Amino acid sequence: MKGNLTIHQKNDLIYFTIPSFDQTGLVQHCFTSRIGGVSKGSNYALNLSFKTGDDRENVLENYRRVCDALEISVYDLVLSDQVHGDRIKVVTEEDRGKGIVVDSDVREIDALITNRRNIGLVTLYADCVPIFLLDPKQKVIALAHAGWKGTMLKIGAKVVGKMMEQFQTNPKDCLAAIGPSIGKCCYEVDQQVAEKFNEKFTNPSKFAISKGDNKYMLDLWQANKSILEEIGILERNITVGEICTQCNDEILFSYRADQGRTGRMAAILQLK
């Protein structure tokens, strides 16, 4: 598999990390695959969602396996409840375990931010774009979930703006990464979606490429990269993973490839 992320195999697990994040030594992080868990059927095998018809104990065991590989605690994780919106939550110690091992009031949230150590942020995916953010100077981290709706809402820029407002982040200091997600090779949309991009971007033809018959191939990777650059993150500090979930459905969950019946992968990010 080609791409700009580092692939790891530990025990039965396969997962990815971001080279620039690894080099800082400040975080534990990963983007999981579908390989190495105990789930069955359409959730096979490393499903990390409690909302896809999987057995709860299977999902918890999958989280335990991932946490063991990363040497972090499942009790420190905080799971977002994504709705393809742009709401952001700043996570603190009182949120530990929410959505995974304890009941959660983290609802209708598509991005998480924290400056607290040993709290693992978690967002879930099966084609949408995971955006990882790290401010190594102020020691702030964030995850954002950006499908086409979140991309149009420019959730990545809004998260950076929140980091600037609350934690004095300078975007020029930030590292960012776009994780495995559906690529322009596979993401066909209709004219209605392409027209919505026309309303939100000054150069939409870069991201919505016409293939005729009112069909377009949508490039969410470059759209989100452009959004991050607009808010001030330096191009050289943005890693585009360039790993398509639909092209690699044998090791990655893909909502489109699996026709809606599939598990979810996780982006996990924690300050050491």
From TrEMBL:
SUPFAM superfamilies: CNF1/YfiH-like putative cysteine hydrolases (SSF64438). GO terms for molecular function: copper ion binding; hydrolase activity; S-methyl-5-thioadenosine phosphorylase activity. CDD domains: YfiH. It catalyses: inosine + phosphate = alpha-D-ribose 1-phosphate + hypoxanthine; adenosine + H2O + H(+) = inosine + NH4(+); adenosine + phosphate = alpha-D-ribose 1-phosphate + adenine; S-methyl-5'-thioadenosine + phosphate = 5-(methylsulfanyl)-alpha-D-ribose 1-phosphate + adenine. It comes from the Bacteria. Keywords: Hydrolase, Metal-binding, Transferase, Zinc. Belongs to the purine nucleoside phosphorylase YfiH/LACC1 family. NCBIfam families: peptidoglycan editing factor PgeF. Purine nucleoside enzyme that catalyzes the phosphorolysis of adenosine and inosine nucleosides, yielding D-ribose 1-phosphate and the respective free bases, adenine and hypoxanthine. Also catalyzes the phosphorolysis of S-methyl-5'-thioadenosine into adenine and S-methyl-5-thio-alpha-D-ribose 1-phosphate. Also has adenosine deaminase activity. This is Purine nucleoside phosphorylase.
